[in-house]
């Protein structure tokens, strides 16, 4: 569904920019998440299971699931923004399809529409276990490019 | 908008049940969140600012904001469920109204409609600073009561 | 939660502008909806029940419920925009709390945050019957002000 | 992402059931929509452009776009439900990617996860014009199977 022309990166340094911005997200270090894939309109973030990130039934907390996929979606949008722009999450919506049980989780953000200001991004989080890979959450998010505002720059 | 009859608690031990379930959410300890208010259809969770919970511009990460308000909404729904039921997040949607900047944050979950299985809950997160209180996020969430399923019990 | 300063109207002719724009929404005439309240940050739209607007169980179709509350939210945002701006729906999310059964329906849009470009609006649809008023749908919407784009002007 | 086993239809008469239920949705006749594709987990609905279904800029109203994709998503979920069950929309979220300009529109609902009670469905609406096909809206919806409730049966 993606428009090929709109998917062209505006900043040749987009990989470095995403990696640097990811490194500044202190929550990623706190929970142990790493950046594993960056391409135009695409970002993946991986997170090993940890028992100190759970909800009351021992599954990964929905908020942690959301933390990694929000960043994946935001950085996916950032890959297509011009140098000097910063990215902000306007809103997102997530459905939770199955308990977040697994040894590791991967959040994937994929840009569906890249506008000058507003980008729409689809996200999913899969849980990996010996039994295979299972989608546990689906996100539909709206990201915004901001320039010269409040020191927001990526 | 809440229906008074539907708002009646089904379990006289609802306060203890919410507190116990909250205590089992290991992510709450990890980020430093505490349960500060429990009433029929209402739960508040507080979180002091910490520099290791941030996104790239130094604000609280949207995923952390979402973590506390998801729990506030889920436990608000749990206050009205019968003993033996567990609560699961089916889905939520959040708008982010302002950067999550402040000394402390409070997430408030308020049940709008409590059905036998499906509950709809409104959530908000406010940031507190010397300048006052500011709403930084609004959530609209759907929670489900599950009984006798997969060992899910609260 | 609304910020009083942000709620100040930017166009003294906002009532006329909303009424004119509503009159150009041909779907409103088609379904029989009318504009019943316009104030800064607030718009109501009324719709009598009609058997030709229903889903399979004889209730008002969720899409029709959404049509009137989307317009109420969009025009609520427009009341606070400067002259010359047009309003577009970026996205919305609706929960359906009860079957849309009643003699008449009222959609209410209320601006929660009015930004220069992005506005967040809360909406609800109530059903009226001899038994009273009942909330059947809750919306959380994101609207955008556009200027000088594609002939979009309200 | 769909689970093959979960995608198995539970009612061999699912095509007839969807067609009959669609025929009872009076709003579909009112706006001129038709059912064009029914398969396990999949439903398409087509709608020719009509000037009496528009918003203020002459594009198809977002509520009309939502009406056809809500039905497509709901009926897609219904294809996988057991005989005797009815389908209700719990909630949906739609992003609007481009103005709904075109000669005709097609709404496509595709089940992502079919649970015993809760189904998650992805929807999209494309606009067709001499220039080709363009996605104008993306939906993520939650549908519920109800049995023996309030005369809700499909």
Q: What can be said about this structure in brief?
A:
The structure is a homotetramer of 154-residue chains. With 154 residues, chain A is an alpha+beta fold.
Explain the overall architecture:
The structure is a homotetramer of 154-residue chains. The longest helix of chain A is centred in the middle third of the chain and has 17 residues. The two termini of chain A are 27 Å apart. In chain A, a hairpin with a 2-residue loop joins strand 5 and strand 6. Chain A has one domain: Hotdog Thioesterase (Thiol Ester Dehydrase, Chain A), CATH 3.10.129. Chain A has a 6-stranded antiparallel sheet with strand order 1-2-4-5-6-3. Chain A is α+β, with helices and mostly antiparallel strands and 154 residues long. The mean pLDDT of chain A is 93. The first copy, chain A, is built from 3 helices and 6 strands; from the N terminus they run ααββαββββ.
